[in-house]
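User: I'm new to structure prediction. If I give you an amino acid sequence, what do you actually give back? Let's try with this one:
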Amino acid sequence: MTDRKAAVARPGDGTEVLHGAGDHYTFRLTGEDTDGQYFSMEGVVPPGGGPPPHVQTREEEAFYVLEGEVTFWADGKRIAGTTGSWINIPKGVVHNFRNETDRTARLLIFFAPAGIEQAFREMVTDADNPGHIAAVGRKYGMEFVDAT
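Assistant: Good question. You get back a string of structure tokens that encode the predicted 3D arrangement of the chain. For your 148 residues, that looks like this:
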């Protein structure tokens, strides 16, 4: 038995909304809701949106494409993420994604274990400063890498 309570995130609910890399992210369930087991957020990715190449050393990351199409790069491979696709990125794998279409895409993104949500919170405090973003990333085991 557990003392934890079920957590619910209904449509329109969102514990926090952050903007980064041109995208709009709504936290759905955080580590506070899941006893640190996982963190989930919904991403709205406009045409041209998506984060730069990076690697996480602490979390697995999974994406479910709710709507639209997003191109993923993982471990040097190109992956077309169409509506209904699941993409899993193991920790330690360089990856990123980009919306290369002319339509907005929506993703459900999961991280296990939780904790990286704090990095996102800290990154947006000075989102226009690449040095700040990189320093916060390193603090939470995330490294941004050169795409070339």
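You can read the tokens as a compact description of the fold. Here is one thing that stands out. Residues 17-115 form a domain with the Jelly Rolls fold (CATH 2.60.120.10).
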